[in-house]
Design goal:
The protein has 333 residues and is of the alpha/beta class. The protein has a five-stranded mixed β-sheet with strand order 1-7-6-4-5, with helices on both faces. It has a four-stranded mixed β-sheet with strand order 8-13-12-11. A two-stranded antiparallel ribbon has the order 2-3. It contains eight helices and 13 strands. It is 30% helix and 24% strand. β4 (76-79), α4 and β5 form a beta-alpha-beta unit. The protein has helices at residues 20-27, 31-37, 52-67, 92-100, 116-130, 221-245, 264-273, 294-304; strands spanning 4-12, 17-19, 42-44, 76-79, 106-109, 136-143, 165-173, 179-187, 195-198, 215-218, 254-259, 313-320, 324-331. The protein has two domains: 4-176, 3-Layer(aba) Sandwich (Peroxisomal Thiolase, Chain A, domain 1), CATH 3.40.47; 181-331, Peroxisomal Thiolase, Chain A, domain 1 (3-Layer(aba) Sandwich).
Length: 333
Amino acid sequence: MTSVGIAGFGTYFPPAVQTSADLAPLTGIPEAVLREKMGIRQRHVAGEHDTVTYMASQASVKALETAGVSPEQVKLVISHGSEHKDHIVWNAAAKIQHNIGAVNAYSFEIYALCAGAPIAMNMAKSMMAGDPRLEYVLLAAGSRENDLINLKNERSRFMFNFGAGGGAMLLQRNATRNLILGASAITDGSLSETVILTEAAIGDGQPVVGEVKGRLDVTDPDYMAARLGDTSLTNFVRVIRESVESSGASLSDVRFLGITHMKRSFYLEILHAVGLTAEQSIYLEDYGHVQSVDQVLTIELGLAAGKIKPGDLIVLAGAGTGYTWSAITVRWG
């Protein structure tokens, strides 16, 4: 069986930040609530030049450097980042490929919102197993979804944690380290239209953002809250468990969970449900939720904090409006 592993990774975050103290007057939410309940100590905000493809490209360069691989060796670039990108109806992956000099590659996008990273990893693994020419595949993502949030819109409150940044992973065929194992995903299509762009959410005096006229809005807050309350924990546990079991292991073997940013209480509830503690994970309170960048960021921070060690079985998980939950298991080292 062909093995696929993570040969390198990198992130990029704009230097500008908004702290919970900065966000309090903008949202009308007390600083202590933002910091302790919603888990936003700070978030990065993009400057004018920090386009989705720029941030993803900066992260990609770092991923190549950490792997010691030249851009010319990359045969495929997959963008799994934000649909709110440099231009609409446009292939961001081609721009990332051009930016990094991957002249021997082809490129395309996939879009699973904030569940995108595990799904992109699993899809790339399958493609690499079936095509021996794909020795190196680059997965890249960037997000500045916070541009699309009206901080006065109470309906979009759960998205106030959005931050900006980029992340990338370089995958290697016939790898011997950081092997990608089993994966799982599930979608609840009854939530497919609960979060959409609406002009009604723009608010008074707010400008059109680039080519986008609208802000992210929740069309039926009561239904969304009730449905997610009934299903989200169950579906997170399901995809995490299935990804581990399809790797030939059990939840008790997992040593680290890298999961998308969310309110603190639910994050701790998920950890408890899969038998882990906060010491076996990273909470992204200094970054917020950076769409499908979150998973590579948790690897970077988990290694820096000594929470991921050689031989550890780790799981990366996410969930995105639509509503999809996803997870993938990696044997680190």
